[in-house]
Amino acid sequence: MNNIREILKTNQTFANALLHSQIQIHVYHLQTKSYSRHKAFETFYEKIEDLLDQYIETFQGKYGVLEDYSAIDLDNNSENCVEYLKGLQRINNKTKIGHLDSDLDNIKDEINELINRTIYKLENLR
User: Fold this and answer.
1) Cα(34)–Cα(41) distance, integer angstroms
2) Which among 36, 27, 111, 125 has a CA at the least distance from the CA of 77?
3) Which of 5, 36, 92, 109 is the most buried (most CB within 10 A)?
4) Domain layout of the chain by residue ranges
C-alpha cells in the first residue's frame, strides 16, 4: 500500500484542483463567444460538481477529513482551456490511492472520461 502521507498529500492537491476546476471552467463558460465551447464548458462544470463531491466524500470516509484547502488564482483567457484540462488530468493521474481503493479509482476514471470528452468537444466541435 502507498504511504499514507503521500496519499493524503496528493489527494489534498487533487481535491483543491477539482474544486478549482469547477470555478475555472465556469469562468471560461462565461467568457467564451463560441456556442459549442459554451456548452462544452457548461457540461463540464455541471458534471464535475457531483464527481468531486463523490470523490472527496468517499476519500474522507476511508482516510479522514481533508483540511488544507486553498485558493488558486483564476485564468481569464479561455484559450488556455485545453491545456488547463490536461493539467487537471495530470494531477488526477498522479494522485495516489491504496491498492484496494477501486471505488476511488472508478471515480478518478469518470473524471478522466469527463476531461477527455470535454477536450474532444473543445478541439473538434466548433
Assistant:
1) 11
2) 27
3) 92
4) 4-124
State the DSSP string of the chain.
---HHHHHHHHHHHHHHHHHHHHHHHHHHHH---HHHHHHHHHHHHHHHHHHHHHHHHHHHHH---------PPP--GGGHHHHHHHHHHHHHH----TT-HHHHHHHHHHHHHHHHHHHHHHH--
Per-residue pLDDT of the chain (126 residues; tens, 9 = 90+): 458 889 999 999 999 999 999 999 999 999 999 999 999 999 999 999 999 999 999 999 999 999 999 988 999 999 999 999 999 999 999 999 988 999 999 999 999 999 999 999 999 997
Residue with grid cell 493539467, as numbered in its chain: 87
